[in-house]
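Technical annex B. To support the medicinal chemistry partners, we prepared a structural model of the target in complex with S-adenosylmethionine, based solely on the information shown next.
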Amino acid sequence: MADQDIKDVVKDKYARAALRVTAGDGSSCCGPASSRGECDPITSRIYTEGETAELPAEARAASLGCGNPTALAELAPGETVLDLGSGGGIDVLLTAKRVGPTGWAYGLDMTDEMLALARENQRKAGATNVEFLKGEIEQIPLPSGSVDVIISNCVINLSADKDRVLAEAFRVLKPGGRLAVSDVVVRGPIPAQIRRSVELWIGCVAGALEEQEYRDKLARAGFEAVDVEPTRIYRVEDAREFLEGAGLDVAAIAPQVDGKFMSAFVRARKPAR
Ligand SMILES: C[S@@+](CC[C@H](N)C(=O)[O-])C[C@H]1O[C@@H](n2cnc3c(N)ncnc32)[C@H](O)[C@@H]1O
């Protein structure tokens, strides 16, 4: 699929997800397995109730991430933070609380319906240190060296040009700035057809990076202190129904799937000079 086609598929998928939430038809269980009427093991239960209790219900319902970057990123009051692919805004609103009135939280998303939902959630939350920007993570509409921390929640795996995303993240960070993102990561080599089927189950339209590949790309973009920490490891049982539906012999492929796909917290730093 060409890069632009991938982007159109992603935009369409998340526009529909946003409209479902706006129509009161969404829940936090709206990931890949929602067609079966269940909470999927990727997007569900990633925040504690205490963390999100004060957020608008629609911000919680639109949560489509696979981790909790604001809890792990050690955000400090006064910092400027950018969320790549901010969706309905849940991590931006959580960030706004963490950085306080002297800090600033930007959300960046390319899907109009998600931006409309996020701005409505901002209004309901009464957050004044927040701005949602329209744009693509491959071309971030912010000046170089303007951001302390970049967070993101399950979005980089959707991009067909991950080198570009990482180069842009590096550009907009201040010297010494941190990248602290949740993303889907693959561990080790996996046959292409099996990999593609599991990625479709997870919802990775463009494909997840293999762990070492992720580390190498970050280093090539200029980052240092790279760390990839698994936060949720997927078992073959989680995807059994989907994989059987795709015509795969799950018992036969289990050793190549079980424990190889994970949500991970990826950290890296832009050198101070
Ligand atoms: C999986 S959802 C995650 C949303 C949010 N981070 C969360 O945790 O709920 C992906 C979001 O990223 C946006 N997105 C995907 N690819 C993008 C790109 N290349 N540029 C900007 N936004 C993108 C989509 O529109 C969607 O809102």
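Notes passed to the chemistry partners:
The two ends are 39 Å apart (CA to CA).
The CA atoms of residues 96 and 127 lie 7 Å apart.
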